[in-house]
Amino acid sequence: MAATDDVFLTHQQPVWRSRADFIVMAPLAEHHTYEQIWARQEADDLFEICCIPFFAHNLSLGDLVRTEMQGERSYLISDVVRPSGRSTFRVWLGKSPDDRLDVEAEFIAMGALTEWSSEHLLALDVPDEPQAQVLATRLAAGEQSGRWLYETGRL
Asked: Considering its fold, how many domains does the chain have in total?
């Protein structure tokens, strides 16, 4: 498969866009698929993540990551050097709900930062474990009632 067959999943409105000065790549499980991650360069191969990952696992806003070259691709995330302590969640709203902005507002009121991947997929970030527990409880209740599906960003 040629590099032109690669698939890149992008962020239109990264939550810390004003801090970002670089885009690095997170290789995903699907072959030749990458999530473009907005970042702030700290050193030649070290970057602070400035967006909420939509698809990449075990990465969070504010993590300091190391990148490396793999084949012809440079700046691929290889590992987390310093975790931020933040937590990532993803919410799948299914068929484009009319109340999607109300759903987002509810999470923002709970202290979450948000980014939309599409009208169906919302990424959430909270700064610490106590807030992550509160948000996880609300997400589980919403999933149990059939309102959405959710997952954490950590495997």
From this structure: 2
